[in-house]
Amino acid sequence: MSRVLVTGATGFLGSHLVRALSAADHHVVALDRELVPGALTLNVTYLKGDILDPNSVEQAAKGCDALFHCAGKVSRDPRDAEILQRLHVDGTKLTLDGARRAGVKRAVVASTSGTIAVTDDPKEIKSEDEPAPLSLIGKWPYYRSKLFGEMAALERNDPPAFEVVVVCPALLLGPGDERGSSTGDVADFIEGRLPAIPGGGLSFVDARDAAQAMILAWERGRPGERYLASAQNLTLAAFCQKLERISGVKAPSVQLPQSHLLAKVSSYLDKALAERMKSKPRFDAVSTEMAQYYWYVDSGKIRDELGWEPRDPHETLADTVDDLRSRGVVWG
Length: 332
Description:
- The chain has a domain at 3-180 and 203-233 and 297-311: NAD(P)-binding Rossmann-like Domain (Rossmann fold).
- It is built from 12 helices and 10 strands.
- It has helices spanning 12-23, 54-61, 81-101, 134-137, 141-155, 184-190, 207-220, 236-247, 260-277, 285-290, 300-306, 313-326; strands spanning 3-7, 27-32, 44-48, 66-69, 106-110, 163-169, 171-173, 201-206, 226-229, 232-235.
């Protein structure tokens, strides 16, 4: 079949994508900074490389028909702003430019639905036609850098010489999050580290289905387009109720109203108490703030144009919980 390059190949999304492409008999060149020594998989060539090193990308891309750019870093820590900018913006530019020099004709770039789908209004479900909510995501280095990475990628769309498609999955859940980059909130719920239920809402998708969305975007996606991919939108209260039924762990009894002021005060008081008690704060200030918003996604475009269909969200949550327990991330 085809020979394709996958960056971030050992990450949550990248590892599922490598398996799906290999199972479809494509030969995968898997590029990552953190490869497992001696890793062997059918139809996969593992290479150690860095997306900030254009030479390593160009060499890995030689002979490839397509690029799947999944490399990046998930972080809510404001102190990571510089490295997030380098990875998501500079890294995207260098990777796509290197792939084009190597003769690659088509690239699919993984971004996040949070570059579009975040709002104060629970009635709003965002589609690809919406403008980026810069007043919101400008506060969060991760989403700001992913948005600028998208823009850099689409600036390089130059059909037919070099075609670029962007896929924007919602929160990735499911099995196989070895680094805990996306399923940490579920682990916190199971371990009882969630003191109260915030007032906002989220959107999520199985990482295995996000990988299929990437493949469909390669096969059928229109150059220069973005595709949002989500399985379900839920208030955080409804999400916790689902986790309670699946995991058997009781959800927090306290449900907070949607209030940005309350979130800030709670985080401030919690931090002050932790400093006094010489302990770790229970609230992550950035996560608490983000949980007051609604991250609802309209996936109509990817369903209609590419024929993408995610699995039952209940299956995704059950597999997430089972995986966290089986790997010893949380108590069984």
